[in-house]
Write a structure and sequence with these properties.
Blueprint lengths: L1 H25 L1 E7 H11 L3 E7 L12 H8 L3 E4 L8 H8 L5 E3 L23 H4 L8 H7 L17 H18 L4 H26 L7 E3 L6 H7 L2 E3 L12 H13 L2 E7 L5 H10 L3 E5 L13 H16 L1 H4 L7 H21 L1
Parallel strand pairs: 1-2, 1-3, 3-4, 5-6, 5-7, 7-8
Main location: other
InterPro entries: AdhesinB, Bact_metal-bind_prot9, Lipoprotein_PsaA-like, ZnuA-like
Subcellular location: Cell envelope
Length: about 350
């Protein structure tokens, strides 16, 4: 009898050890194209999902090249989520090669898209009605449009970076919620509840960002590594310029750089910013030639591996805080924008600070 009891206990222990693996196997297997979508899917799916991102944190979706292992991940998935709007030029081929036949969520479906050619990055600060501004082609942002026109083909006519406006982010969340319900209807109530909670968090974060950026002077301009902040600009009223276009694969020509330097000197450009997944070389060159400080690191197409910017909402808050710290009124009183010699002397200090500033938030 004692022997029988021991055997039974051992059997029970083995069964308990197998439970976590069984529970993991029962979770909906979600594969997303890049890290921002992965965080969204995890928030909506909660305990019912296991999320894998093809392109990880601090990595560049533009230059990603799928492997056979990625095709196997898709083949074993219950749900696949990608951005669309030609952001992932490799996604269609990957889906075809994987023979994936489950639900496929295009997260950007239904957003109010920005025409890339029609970016008006000089919106009056705090202008909330970005829908009305999408057709405003009357700006003379020749440095932005001409310096990046050579790269328009990379994503087509529509700017794909819709998540940079939290109002558009709510559309992303709704699409992911619907995809999860299709893949796993038994947990529909949980997905709806999680999505509602998450959308409330997006709205609260949006209000925080508007209040924070409200302290930045109207028509302030900044320079970033590639043109990924059009929706942020439209929503929150900060003018963004870029030496390259929508894709990080582009390299600006000498003429592009010279023209952008002229624009920097002619317009109210206050600071330069690195991006976490683009080469700093171009921004460093602009800093050397203009004397502008490099004020921090912004996150556009990929989350950070750790820290506040390792989540979608944390990334948005981080970007707003870095912009505020560099551009708010108090900072403008401390130096003359045209005093390039003074700024250049401080450049080494500012560039040193950029690394700390970019990772502390």
């Amino acid at each position: 009898m004692r022997h029988l009891t021991s055997a039974t206990l051992m059997l029970g222990a083995s069964a308990m050890l197998a439970l976590p693996a069984a529970m993991a196997a029962e979770r909906v297997q979600v594969v997303t194209s890049f890290s921002i979508l992965a965080d969204m899917a995890q928030n909506v799916g909660g305990e019912h999902v296991e999320v894998t991102s093809l392109v990880g944190p601090d990595s560049d979706t533009h230059v990603f090249s799928p492997s056979p292992r990625d095709a196997r991940s898709l083949a074993e998935a219950d749900l696949v989520v990608f951005n669309g709007l030609q952001f992932e030029g490799w996604m269609e081929r990957l889906v075809e090669s994987s023979d994936y036949s489950g639900p496929l969520v295009t997260a950007s479906d239904g957003i109010d898209t920005l025409d890339y050619h029609g970016h008006d990055h000089a919106h009056a600060h705090g202008h909330d009605d970005h829908e009305d501004d999408h057709d405003d082609h009357g700006h003379d942002d020749h440095g932005h449009d001409e310096a990046t026109a050579h790269d328009d083909h990379a994503h087509g006519d529509d700017d794909p970076h819709g998540w940079q406006d939290l109002a558009m982010g709510k559309v992303y969340i709704g699409n992911i919620r619907d995809g999860l319900i299709e893949a796993d209807p038994d947990n529909e109530a949980a997905y709806r509840e999680n999505a509602e909670r998450y959308i409330n968090e997006l709205e609260a974060t949006d209000a925080e960002i508007r209040e924070l950026l409200g302290e930045i002077p109207d028509s302030t301009s900044v320079i970033t590594g590639h043109d990924s902040f059009g929706y942020f600009s439209s929503a929150y009223g900060i003018r963004f310029l870029s030496p390259v276009g929508l894709s990080t694969e582009a390299e600006p020509s000498a003429a592009d750089m010279a023209e952008l330097i002229d624009v920097i000197r002619e317009q109210d450009v206050r600071a330069l910013f690195h991006e976490n997944m683009t080469s700093p070389a171009v921004i460093n060159q602009l800093a050397e030639e203009t004397g502008l400080p490099i004020a921090g690191t912004l996150y556009a197409d990929a989350l950070a591996a750790e820290g506040e910017a390792s989540t979608y909402l944390g990334m948005m808050r981080h970007n707003a805080q870095v912009l505020h710290d560099a551009l708010a009124e108090a900072g403008h009183d401390d130096h003359d924008h045209d005093d390039h010699g003074h700024d250049h002397d401080d450049h080494g200090h500012d560039e040193h600070d950029h690394d700390d500033h970019g990772h502390d938030h």
